[in-house]
Design goal:
The structure is a single chain. By secondary structure, this protein is mainly alpha-helical. The chain has two domains: 1-52, Orthogonal Bundle (Arc Repressor Mutant, subunit A), CATH 1.10.10; 60-208, Tetracycline Repressor, domain 2 (Orthogonal Bundle), CATH 1.10.357.10. It has eleven helices and no strands. The chain is globular. The N and C termini lie far apart (63 Å). The mean pLDDT is 86.
């Protein structure tokens, strides 16, 4: 017998999944709780029952996505492996995550660039949190260790992160141009992403060699 809590969790999750798909596809401003309810097949009141406001629903999804990206680094750092293998693993996981959610870069960039409130919210909920400050310090320690051992050029940790993020994100931002301007099939697009994964890894590692 299905109990009420299971039904509630299923509906709550369904609302979040539909809202995420709509936010990714058309942005925050163009998405309404009325549309979310219609796509889910429930009442607007039920959306508000679980999440109170569209803003609260958006923030939960937004935090989940940013947290997932940061957890890529955390999981890779936790493994006992060389720094080069760590970077390969992190870049590969980053690409794989975005292959499953190719609209995610648009979603994050649009909100960060155009909405100062989002930037403040992200700062308060991630940048200032001790757990993520500690994560950056762990990454910084690994970088300094490699440099002191003579295995890495003198490159700032922040620059390494920016290189990986910018090269990876632009791969997915360029997909509409690659697909439409060059008349590429879905399989060709997939191969393009896999090629870019290898090329981004090569470029980042090459830039770190002493």
């Amino acid at each position: 017998m299905v109990n009420e809590s299971m039904v509630n969790e299923s509906m709550e999750q369904r609302i979040r999944e539909v809202a995420q798909e709509l936010f990714f596809r058309q942005g925050y401003a163009a998405t309404s709780t009325t549309q979310i309810a219609r796509e889910v097949g429930c009442t607007q009141a039920l959306v508000h029952y679980y999440y109170r406001t569209k803003e609260n629903l958006f923030r939960q999804i937004y935090l989940e996505q940013v947290e997932a990206a940061l957890n890529v680094i955390a999981r890779s750092l936790a493994n006992e492996q060389s720094f080069e293998d760590f970077l390969r693993s992190a870049i590969s996981t980053y690409f794989d995550t975005l292959m499953q959610n190719p609209r995610l870069p648009y979603f994050v960039l649009e909100e960060l660039v155009s909405n100062p409130e989002r930037r403040r919210y992200l700062r308060e909920n991630f940048v200032k949190k001790p757990a993520y400050a500690c994560l950056y310090m762990q990454l910084e320690a690994r970088v300094r260790h490699e440099q002191q051992a003579g295995r890495m050029a003198r490159v700032e940790t922040f620059d390494i992160m920016m290189s990986v993020a910018s090269l990876t994100v632009f791969t997915f931002i360029s997909l509409p141009m690659y697909r439409d301007l060059l008349a590429q099939t879905d399989e060709q697009v997939r191969q393009y992403i896999l090629h870019r994964k290898e090329e981004v890894t090569r470029l980042v590692l090459q830039g770190l060699r002493p």
